[in-house]
Design brief:
The complex is a heterodimer of chains A (343) and B (332). Chain A is built from 15 helices and 9 strands. Helices cover 40% and strands 13% of the residues of chain A. In chain B, helix 2 links the parallel strand 1 and strand 2. Classes of the chains: A alpha/beta (343), B alpha/beta (332).
Chain lengths: 343, 332
């Protein structure tokens, strides 16, 4: 197995990323990965409302064409909904995406990603209706905005002692319940990203039949809010949503082991200059998780990791039927560059 | 000062958390000696002559800033004033870059106020001078708690060593967002007082009783009048700039429900005519405290301000004395 290629992480919340190096998110990174023949599925995002007709779209389309040239299959991930975004923005982004492609033959299931949580159930419903019609998957953050505004921690002893702005765990349960009901209403498939509470995970597992899945950031499987006390104010521990309580962390880990939750890298890039910033000013992120598989090897077996980070998401994206069986060293649609796992 | 100067057990004053009872007593006793200095006609001693005190205020302040500046000057220190408004911070400079540039000017002591919890801790890792926390986010405001304790001890004619045993202090307001409350809960408990906290449920952070060992009430009348009642009440300012609006009703609702209005004060005074009324300021008169109550003989609000200078002189002095320690600047 030491020379085998393994299945790469299919990170539903990542765009333009070099596998194994979530810090490096650029067209160049994708091109390098494609040139190495190591990328079977490229997830490319069109970030931001103002970028619909801007250079980012052009760059993304160029990357797509470069990737196709080396036989890469494509999963377009369109991320048009930030705070204040509308359905029209989503349609415009989708149109820009399709206009940039000569053929959709290589494109598998589209992923529409909301980069910010929304409490607007009507907007969610309209997105759900459109996504069901297009066969797209909607990735949406889990928390209720009004309860989580400004929070960098979970309400509890740690946040109280350190004086950190905090959100109640109920912020996630409320947010997930809203998504579940919208999924039931529209028939669309939703993926709740950044699940961080036991209650949120339980709701998702109970309502899997509705078409709702959940993704947990790897950081929340590895450390919980207690880390803030051991190394106070280390902004590399700041997550959006925040680190779990120890109870939730164990529940999330159990859910992943059962196959009820998928895993992402929690990839948001933290610039080096921000790592020493005070907690409330730093960008949430998981830079330390550049080697997610290696890190998770302490809590997941290789088989559990493969399912949670690779096979499960691939199945969700519809890759499995054409990819046959995704196994190490098999000629798959997907290949991997995670040496740590095979070592 | 004594011939053999006692030292704090910590190189920086980042919070009350981390201080020992002996540290608190040392600061309060030292402050008592500076009260005498402040009563002289010539209110100045050469204790910090030749030392540079940098006052870094990234957040607005009136009382604390003036108090620290006056304290430094009465100790004969040179002062370096910095405020975020009009500085390179507004041009996007990070806290650490600002700190490193200030550091290049060689301050011996750094007084810092910042909107982010933990900012002084950050600075203690990169600056060589001793750090005094003048308020960080929702975390701590240790010198406010020290001057509050000093004021209570003075009012009750007790020494710091005697402490606050047998006394009950009630803190009322937005506990969740209050650094004053956090530092006071820690220090009052350290000095032996029993502490009650009260406020709307939305202003009471989770696990308060477990973390601080205080009694928690969401009904202010229960907090003030149940059991043996209280000996002092500390009214916190409703912090409109920290989004308190989102978790409370109108000012009038708050005043009726949780404010120390005339009727509630009269009842309190009837139960204990020695009741002490405190407020860290600035006051929202008519919201958390009635104007007449704030100006009553039970109020020690101006005493708090006056004592703040002596307490901050003590803090600066003791940190400077402790500068010989090798671990200053490497608290992490």
């Amino acid at each position: 197995m030491s020379n085998a290629n393994l299945v790469d992480m299919v990170d539903l919340t990542v765009s333009l990323r070099l596998p194994g190096a979530p810090d490096d998110e650029s067209v160049t990174a994708l091109a390098k990965a494609a040139a190495a023949g190591g990328v079977g599925v490229a997830v490319v995002g069109v970030e931001g409302l103002s970028l619909v007709d801007g250079p980012a779209v052009s760059a993304a389309v160029m990357a797509m064409r470069a990737a196709r040239a080396v036989g890469v299959r494509l999963i377009p991930a369109i991320c048009p909904i930030r705070t204040g975004g509308t359905l029209a923005d989503l349609r415009a982004a989708e149109r820009a995406w399709r206009d940039g492609h000569e053929s959709e033959a290589d494109v598998v299931t589209a992923v529409w990603r909301l980069t910010e949580p929304t409490d607007d159930a009507l907007l969610l419903r309209r997105i759900g209706d459109l996504a069901r019609a297009r066969g797209a998957i909607v990735v949406v953050p889990s928390v209720d905005r009004s309860l989580s505004a400004g929070a960098v921690a979970v309400e509890g002893a740690v946040a109280t002692r350190l004086g950190l702005a905090a959100m109640p765990e109920a912020a996630e349960a409320i947010g997930v319940a809203r998504i579940i009901e919208v999924a039931r209403l529209t028939g669309a498939r939703f993926v709740v990203s950044g699940v961080f509470t036991a209650a949120g995970a339980a709701l998702i597992e109970q309502h899997a039949a509705v078409g709702v899945s959940g993704v947990v950031n790897a950081a929340n499987l590895l450390c919980d809010e207690g880390a803030l006390l051991r190394r106070p104010y280390d902004t590399r521990l700041l997550q959006a949503p925040p680190l779990s309580t120890s109870t939730s962390r164990l529940a999330l880990l159990a859910a992943v082991k059962r196959g009820a939750l998928l895993v992402s890298s929690g990839h948001r890039h933290v610039p080096k200059r921000e790592r020493d910033l005070e907690m409330t000013r730093a960008t949430p992120g998981g830079t330390a998780l550049a080697s997610t598989a290696a890190l998770l090897s302490s809590v997941l077996t290789p088989a559990e990791f493969l399912h949670a980070a690779c096979i499960g998401p691939a199945a969700l994206l519809g890759c499995t039927p054409t990819a046959r069986v995704l196994l190490p060293a098999v000629d798959d649609d997907l290949s991997i560059l995670v040496r740590e796992l095979s070592a | 000062m004594t011939a053999k100067q006692k030292l704090l057990s910590v190189p920086h004053l980042l919070g009350i958390e981390g201080l020992t009872r002996d540290d608190a007593i040392l600061i309060l006793d030292t402050a008592q000696s500076f009260v005498e200095v402040n009563s002289r006609q010539l209110k100045k001693v050469p204790a910090l002559r030749g030392r540079l005190v940098a006052l870094l205020f990234f957040e607005n302040s009136t009382r604390t800033r003036l108090s620290f500046e006056l304290a430094a000057k009465r100790l004969s220190a040179d002062t370096l004033n910095f405020s975020a408004s009009g500085s390179s911070v507004q041009k996007g400079e990070t806290l650490l870059d600002t700190a490193r540039n200030i550091e290049a000017m060689g301050p011996d002591l750094v007084v810092v106020r910042h909107e982010a919890s933990g900012a002084p801790w950050h600075l203690s890792r990169v600056m060589s001078g001793a750090i005094a926390n003048a308020g960080d986010g929702q975390h701590e405001h240790p010198t406010q708690a020290l001057l509050d304790a000093f004021t209570l001890l003075s009012r009750w004619r007790r020494t710091a060593a005697q402490g606050l045993d047998g006394k009950t202090v009630c803190i009322v307001g937005d506990i969740s967002r209050s650094r004053v409350a956090r530092s006071n809960m820690l220090l009052l408990k350290l000095l032996g007082a029993r502490v009650r906290v009260a406020g709307p449920a939305t202003m009471l952070p989770a696990a308060l009783a477990d973390v601080y060992g205080v009694d928690v009430y969401d009904d202010v009348d229960d907090a003030l009048f149940s059991g043996d009642g209280v000996d002092a009440v500390m009214m916190l300012r409703i912090q409109k700039e920290r989004a308190a609006r989102a978790v409370m009703g109108s000012d009038d609702d708050y005043a009726v429900g949780y404010g120390l209005h005339r009727e509630r004060f009269d009842r309190l005074h009837a139960a204990n005519d020695g009741i002490v009324v405190m407020h860290p300021g600035p006051i929202n008169r008519g919201v958390e405290i009635d104007a007449a109550v704030a100006d009553s003989s039970s109020s020690v609000i101006l005493d708090q301000t006056e004592n703040g200078v002596a307490v901050r002189m003590a803090v600066l002095y003791l940190l400077a004395v402790g500068m010989a320690r090798t671990d200053v600047g490497s608290a992490a």
